[in-house]
Design goal:
single chain; about 300 residues; mainly alpha; two-stranded parallel sheet; 17 helices; 5 strands
């Protein structure tokens, strides 16, 4: 049997709910890292995740039990929630690395920031697919793509990547796979009417991924010391020039010539964290708008069924 609650009562509960009073222990303690730039993370949680949990059930008073899902919540809804929470967690882990002093903190920061981006994109795609199901619509990129458009994507991939296959094979012992359409293609479609934030996010997240990969899958990046004995590392945009130690040796001898290619690590980390959080905040507006409309305005039958709730 579906959980019954009046729309007015649910909206009242939501208005009084925040991470600080109803979040998980980790959300309560770490929200301060994100609240200045990623406020929409909490906004989505309030309007879409809270109603799926026992937080809306007045008979449940135990704080640990209240954060759990109500009975009958569809696995698709649980999956969306898991991606959302994991994006939050990895974003805050990046902050902890920013404040850390271990030698590995720099690399760990980019590992977690990249994970936050990957999980955010998976979350956004799941929301997009859910909206299609609820409205009985189809995604052109996933279900109705004309052969001509698919071949155009393949041609673009060929122009960008085919010349790199030989070197990649020598280095990795395998060729990289061709995946079409990609996650990016799907989200291009989702944000078609709001392209600016998505375009900025794509550019930055790609640079962050490339930087992470350079540290995680290649030789140790060697920094250089400036005249004040401060360690500098290659900028994201320049990392491909300095993945081999002989290149860094040249820099040590002529730092003034190459100084614009290098940056103090924490300065770059702080800038990347702030920028990604602000862009994710902008991207989160669309799933918030979509879910509010489906759940509260349209009272979409399929969505309410997946959420095991009846609004009275």
């Amino acid at each position: 049997m579906r959980y019954k609650i009046s729309l007015k009562k649910l909206q009242t509960i939501i208005s009084k709910t925040c991470f600080e009073n109803e979040g998980t222990p980790y959300e309560k303690s770490c929200w301060l890292h994100l609240k200045n730039r990623f406020l929409n993370c909490e906004e989505f949680w309030k309007y879409f995740i809270v109603p799926q949990t026992k937080r809306i059930d007045p008979t449940v008073q135990d704080s640990y039990e209240r954060i759990g899902f109500r009975a009958g919540i569809h696995e698709e809804i649980v999956g969306i929630t898991s991606f959302h929470y994991s994006t939050f967690v990895n974003s805050t882990y990046a902050h902890e690395c920013l404040q850390g002093s271990r030698p590995s903190s720099f690399m760990d920061f980019y590992v977690h920031l990249t994970s936050a981006c990957d999980l955010a994109e998976k979350f956004l795609i799941q929301i997009y697919l859910l909206t299609f199901k609820c409205r009985n619509q189809k995604s052109e990129i996933l279900e109705q793509l004309p052969k001509e458009r698919f071949l155009a994507m393949a041609e673009k991939w060929y122009d960008k990547n085919y010349s790199k296959i030989y070197d990649y094979y020598l280095k990795k012992g395998r060729v990289f796979s061709l995946r079409l359409p990609t996650r990016t293609h799907v989200l291009d479609e989702y944000f078609e009417e709001e392209p600016d934030a998505w375009k900025q996010y794509k550019q930055l997240s790609q640079k962050i991924r490339e930087y992470r990969n350079a540290m995680l899958h290649d030789v140790q990046i060697m920094g250089v010391l400036n005249s004040d004995n401060v360690l500098l590392v290659p900028k994201k945009e320049k990392i491909h020039h300095y993945q081999r130690w002989h290149a860094n040796n040249k820099v040590r001898q002529h730092l003034e010539k190459y100084k614009d290619d290098f940056i103090e690590p924490r300065g770059q980390m702080a800038s990347d964290s702030e920028h990604i959080e602000s862009l994710l905040n902008d991207l989160w507006r669309k799933p918030i708008e979509d879910m509010k409309k489906l759940f509260f305005e349209e009272k979409n039958k399929l969505l309410l069924k997946k959420c095991n709730i009846k609004l009275t």
